[in-house]
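seq:
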Amino acid sequence: MSERIPEGEPVYTIAVASRLTGMHPQTLRKYERAGFLRPARDGHQRFYSASDLDRLRRIRYLVEDRGLNMAGVEMTLSMTDRLDTIDGEMTAAEVRDTVTDALRQTTAARNSPGG
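struct:
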């Protein structure tokens, strides 16, 4: 009987993640430097989870299919991350405030020194 690997378990090396996402390893490093994802590390070795691979595929879609630049990807990921945390009981105003807050944080991070 085979065990299923939990979605958040970092098991894929950068070479495997590169093949599974169709992205060059240097591109994965670039997205890590941009703060789009944080693969687990063991020394200098990066390990990606299934969740990381899904996020990389989302980034690839945003860049290649939708034509977003890095700032657009950053804003979109920030909003979707915040929306993923929204409770089904939130009002429309609370959802709007959550999105506005995500936009504000993204703008502030981009305009801060070193950001």
